[in-house]
Each structure stands twice: as C-alpha cells, then as structure tokens.
Specification:
The complex is a heterodimer. Chain A is mainly α. Chain A has one domain: ABC transporter involved in vitamin B12 uptake, BtuC, CATH 1.10.3470. Helix content of chain A is about 75%, strand content about 0%. Chain A contains 13 helices and no strands. In chain A, helix 3 packs parallel to helix 5 and helix 4 runs antiparallel to helix 10. Chain A is globular and about 55 Å long. The model of chain A has no long low-confidence stretch (mean pLDDT about 85). Chain B is α/β, with parallel strands linked by helices. In chain B, helix 3 packs across helix 4 and helix 4 packs parallel to helix 5. Chain B is globular, with a radius of gyration of 18 Å. The relative contact order of chain B is 0.19. The chains are: A mainly alpha, B alpha/beta. Chains A and B meet through helix 8, helix 9 and helix 12 of A and strand 6 and helix 2 of B.
C-alpha cells in the first residue's frame, strides 16, 4: 500500500517520466474543456447528443481500421483511427441536426436514432474486424476502453491543443451561449444566430468526445462531458461559475483518473476517470453550496 | 439605494408596424389566416381573442420565431433589419427557471449583443440592468437565483430584460397572467412610462374586463383579424361575439 501511495505521489508530482507527465497534463486539459463545453450541452438539455456522437464514432473507428488493414498500413501510425472517429462524429452530428429539424421527428428522437444506428453499424463492422485476425489489433482496444499508458506524446499534445481551442471558444462566447441556453426564442429576437450557436456547442462537445477517445474510450468519453457539469450545478446558481466549476471537476477527474491508472496495474484509464468524476459528483450532491442535500435552507 | 430611473430617451421615429397577408400553419393546420393589420404608431395595444385564436403565434410570427407567409415590416423595412427596434417579453412558462442565473444575469441578456462578440457586459451595463430591476421593484433581489422568485417577480424580471432592449416596439405575451396585485401595479406603471416615451406596446391580454381602461387600441383576433382600431371603435360586443362565438358584454 505504501509503495502504491509513494508511486501515486511520484506520478501526481510529475516525477514519473516525461511521457506520463505529458499524458496527465493532456488529460487534465481535456477534462477541463469537456466540463466547460458539457455545461452548455446540459443547460440546453442536449447532453445526450454527445453520447450519440461518441457511439457514432465506433463505425468510424472500425471502418478506418479496415481501410488501414486493406492498404497494408498500421492504423496506429497515421492517426487513422482518430481520423475515422472524427469523420464519423461529424456525420452523426449532421444527421442529428438534419433529422431533428424534420417535422414530427424532434431533436430527442433524432439523437436516439443516430445513437442506436451508429452503435449498431459499429458493432457490425467490429465483428468483421475481429474475423480478420490481423495480428494484434493495436490501438483498437485503447480507443474502445481508454488507456493513458498506451498514449503517445503526440496524441497527448493534440488532445491538449484541442482542449485549449475549446476553452478559448467558450470563454469568448460565454454570454451568447448562456443567453441561447436560457431562452433561445428571446435570443433569436435579439438577433443572435441561435442555430449556429447551438451547432457550435454540439461541435465543441463532439471535438472533446473524439479527443477523449484514446484516454477514456468511446463508451465513457461521454462521462467527461456529462458528469462535471452535473456536479458543478450543485455549487453555484450562476452559469459562469458553473462553467468554471465544471471545468475544474473535469480537470481533476481526468488528471486523477489518469494518475490512478498509471499506478494501479490493469486499471483502464476510462473507468478510473469516470469513477473519480462520480465520486466528485456524489460529494457535490451532498455538500454543494447552492443545491447540495446538506445545504442550509435559507 | 438606487436613484429613481430617469426616463430613457424618447423612442426614435421608426415608422409603423405593418402586417400584410400573414398566415401560419402548424403541420398543415392553419393557425393564422391572412392577417393584415396596421399597428398604431405609439401607445398601448391589446391583442384579444379566444384560446387558440393565434394571439401568441401572431407575435412570434411578427418576430420571425415561427415560419409564416406574408409580409411584416416596420417603417417599410423587414423586421430582421429592424431587430433593434423590437423587444420580446415571452410567456413565463417558456423557460426553465431552474437555470443557473440571477435576476441581474437575465436582465443583462437583453443587452447580449451590445458589447459585441467576445466581450463581457462591463460595469456600465450592469449598472443599467440594476436600474431596470429597480424600475420593476426588484433592486433587492438582483442577486437572487430566478427560480427562487414568485411568478410575479419572474414576470417583472422578464419585463426588465425587455426594457433593457430600449426598443421602440415591445411585444408582450400575457404579462399580467397569474401575477399578484403588486406586480400588476408595477407592470402597468411601466406601460404608462412606455406610452409616455412614445413607444408602442403590443400586449396579448386575456382579461376582457380591463381592456378599455388599460389600452388605447385593440386587435380582436380569431385566426384572422375580426376588428382592429381604437378601443371605442373596435372593442364592441358585436366584434367580441364574432371572435368568441358567444355573446359577451364588456
């Protein structure tokens, strides 16, 4: 036990080697961005879109793997799998937006349809991948379940870069995103481009989910978008503060989860991150200053 | 304590609001049919009509919130080009009051486009929002989460957000529905101020008994225009009977 703690201490104080440090900082940046972006998805009641996008990446990952194999390339090298995931995420997003605008479909139904269809197609393609028996399916498992240990520094840097981009977008559009989330009709009458701002929030969440695939895996990447905002809501009644707290919760969850999985053998990173986030959620639910269960009634 | 808000500058002359041949259908079912209406230039106007007459829809169609056919112009220009001349005060039930925002945050949203993209609201706008909250009697509750307010207080927050637009034409959807007497008094006071400033207030109103004492003009609506004009002329038992389908006395 002492050895594990000492090791954990070494990891969180960045004494565990360059690679681990880069990955953990990348994870923290990503968690931060995911919490901030997810807050607006939650406030607009569109959190499930990110889940559909995450599931929608599966066929992209599988297809990219097959294409890479057919061309005799290693899928890991050129970021094939991430590119496949990114394209599939974009297609899912467009499908949801397009379907959601049809009369008699509605946004929630469109989201559920895309989630199910994407996941179904993904599973079908994955079974093809498995019958191919291509040596070790390098890189595939880490995208499915997440692995900080298997991450390359280049991937971690890309993740951090995307996270930074997302944070900048949100910081610059905080008041517009808030106005649209609270009252889209009023925002439209003021002249805000509501549909475009909605699409931007969805896109930013999709970017986060795709960037989170290597570390959290495609099933649990959504947790980074959903849990931190839900936890943050217990701490504040102001949107700006909720965004900041969600970003902090996301960063701490991703950082700590990545550290735990680096120290504890055979602990995949995705579940470790989600468990830390769930713990923070439970603490927030209990002690949250604005809406926690133990809040002194005013 | 804040000083009493000075009346804002008189509304600039922006020309008349005109609706021509406006029709709206939801899923093939007509909600509004060939509505043509020339609004008064200024003053307080009520839109009345039975449930399902399309009163709220008319406001939304004018503001471009629901797809419609026909033409809506303000001073001859499209509403889209005249956005800043309009303010919308929607029904209270249309938003989630659990949203993490204070009364001040909501009023500031009326100014969301003023600072331009990528900028905060700044101190001057905060002061202005506080003054508007003071105008609707909520200066003390500026920092309160909006879900922790009464229905009447929430309605006044919405009104203050509309006032923050400093618009020549204000569209209000049932602002007096289900509010307490104090809120009603304050809202009507604000209406009088707007009237005096030379603004146009277009207000969906459900209480026929108070139309003639509170409004100068009326639009009697039931899917199409039944009557429109000064209250003395248009707000007649005959017109109401045609709109509501039953004899009514006023």
């Amino acid at each position: 036990m002492d050895a594990v703690l000492a090791q954990l201490f070494a990891v969180v104080t960045f004494q565990a080697g360059f690679n681990t440090t880069v990955v953990m900082l990348g994870a923290a940046a990503l968690g931060c961005a995911a919490g901030a972006a997810g807050t607006f998805a939650m406030l607009r009641r569109r959190a499930l879109v990110s889940d559909a996008v995450a599931h929608g990446t599966l066929p992209g990952i599988a297809a990219a793997f097959l294409v890479a194999a057919l061309l005799g390339r290693s899928p890991r090298e050129a970021g094939w799998l991430m590119a496949g995931a990114g394209i599939a995420a974009l297609v899912s997003l467009l499908a949801i937006e397009w379907l959601g605008r049809r009369p008699r479909v509605g946004h929630d139904t469109a989201t559920a349809v895309v989630l199910a269809a994407g996941f179904g197609l993904g599973l079908a393609l994955m079974s093809v991948v498995q019958t191919l028996a291509i040596g070790r399916q390098a890189g595939l498992e880490s995208l499915l379940f997440g692995s900080a240990a298997g991450m390359l520094p280049g991937e971690a840097q890309m993740m951090a870069g995307l996270a930074l981009l997302v944070l900048v977008v949100i910081a610059l559009l905080l008041k517009e995103f808030s106005a649209v989330a609270f009252d889209p009709d009023f925002a439209a009458t003021v002249g805000l481009p509501v549909a475009r701002l909605d699409a931007l929030v969805a896109l930013v969440c999709a970017v986060v989910v795709v960037a989170a695939l290597p570390i959290a895996g495609f099933v649990l990447a959504i947790a980074l978008v959903v849990i931190p905002p839900a936890a943050a809501r217990f701490w504040s009644d102001r949107a700006g503060t909720v965004v900041a707290v969600a970003a902090a919760v996301g960063a701490v969850s991703a950082f700590t989860g990545a550290a735990l999985s680096a120290v504890l053998k055979d602990t995949p990173t995705g579940p470790a991150i989600v468990l830390v986030a769930a713990l923070l959620f439970t603490l927030s639910l209990t002690f949250g200053r604005a809406r926690g269960l133990l809040r002194k009634s005013t | 304590m804040l000083a009493v808000t000075p009346p804002e500058a008189l509304a600039p002359a922006i020309g008349r609001l005109a609706v021509e041949g406006l029709s709206v259908a939801y899923r093939g079912v007509p909600v509004l049919n060939d509505v043509s209406w020339e609004a008064p230039v200024t003053g307080l106007t009520a839109i009345v009509g039975p449930n399902g007459a399309g009163k709220s829809t008319l406001i939304k169609a004018i503001l471009g919130l629901v797809p419609s056919t026909g033409r809506v112009t303000i001073g001859g220009r499209s509403v889209d080009a005249m956005r800043d001349a309009t303010a919308y005060v929607p029904q209270r039930a249309t938003v989630d009051w659990d949203f993490p925002a204070t009364a001040l945050d909501v009023v500031l949203q009326g100014m969301v486009r003023e600072p331009g993209w990528f900028r905060g609201y700044g101190r001057a706008r905060r002061e202005r929002a506080l003054a508007l909250l003071d105008r609707v009697g909520l200066a003390d509750l500026a920092g309160r989460q909006i879900g922790q307010m009464s229905g009447g207080q929430q309605q006044r927050v919405f009104l203050a957000r509309g006032l923050a637009r400093d618009a020549a034409i204000l569209f209000l959807d049932e602002p007096l529905a289900g509010v307490d007497a104090a809120s009603e008094r304050i809202i009507l006071d604000v209406f009088d101020d707007l009237d005096r400033d030379g603004r146009l207030v277009v207000c969906v109103h459900h209480d026929l008994g108070t139309v003639s004492e509170r409004f100068a003009d009326v639009l009697v609506l039931n899917k199409t225009v039944i009557a429109a004009g000064p209250v003395q002329v248009a707000f007649t038992p005959q017109n109401l009977a045609r709109a509501y389908g039953v004899p009514l006395t006023v």
